[in-house]
TrEMBL record:
CDD domains tied to this protein: SDR_a3
Protein name (database record): SDR family oxidoreductase
Pfam families: Epimerase
Domain NAD-dependent epimerase/dehydratase span(s) in chain numbering: 13-232
Database matches in InterPro entries: Epimerase_deHydtase, NAD(P)-bd_dom_sf, NAD(P)-dependent_oxidoreduct
Listed SUPFAM superfamilies: NAD(P)-binding Rossmann-fold domains (SSF51735)
Domain of life: Bacteria
Amino acid sequence: MKNRNITQVRPLALVLGATGGIGGAVARRLSDRGWNVRAMNRNPVGAQAKHPQFEWVHGDAMNAADVLSAAEGASLIVHAVNPPGYKDWDKLVLPMLDNTIAAARIVGARVLLPGTVYNYGPDAFLDITEESPQNPVTRKGAIRVEMERRLRRAADDGVPALIVRAGDFFGPGAANSWFSQGLIKMGKPVRSVTQPGKTGIGHQWAYLPDVAETMVRLIEQADRLPSFAQFNMEGVWDPDGRRMIRAIERVVQQPLKVGAFPWWSLLPASPFVPFMRELREMRYLWQQPVRMRNERLRAFLGSEPSTPLDLAVEATLRSLGCLDERSARATVNLPVL
């Protein structure tokens, strides 16, 4: 019998938003796990220089023909694209998702959407499950609810969809986050932190690499997933609003001055700066405990990927330019909680 070289065909994923935090993290994890990753960008040459491991194609998520062309051969479309700077959400977000759904229907791909807690209002707190009512109190939350409604309707029509919901992101690549924009100052050694919520109010965080790992593990078991699948991550639960601050102190090896977040300062800029307006609208998520339950995820995967908090915080601070080799202890000496 002749020896034959059998080439294993690698699955193809199209990642929309691969230059962003969660899109980039998922793209890298898929690539590491044997997927071919195609990414679409309006400046593919510049993106290729920064992320050479992906196949970059030119296109705009607002152009249905571009998305369909980029999706050719894909079995998965990661929809992690958002308007830059929170600008024109009401005009851009839903058309972009519609283009993804249309392309997925034609090529036979599953759509993966990173979910948020913005979908929920206070009636769903404290503990949020996948079946909790979605009654948002913000404009962005209402758009997120409509996105998921369209995905559910598409799933009923033969386009499988997966939503993985997590708390506030932190980690390498999460530069536009509450951690980097609210707690500390990027690019500077950490000497103080601001606390968005009051002490005693719990908050939920999500380490970006853990979120990406969770998504990829779910995709790797796609044959077990229902046509419309939703999973909550527990991530990092901060029961009193100080657990994250204490972790930062351990990593930088010094006590930190803790100040209240200046919510009042957002008001004058809110009408003119979309990011400031979005921060202000999300204040309600810091005024009462918000926690998602992950029983469904643990039952499906057996466990939730979870990096020890101090290691996650160290990697985050280093990526934000807040640490150097002299200001952080060796990771092997960090306590694991």
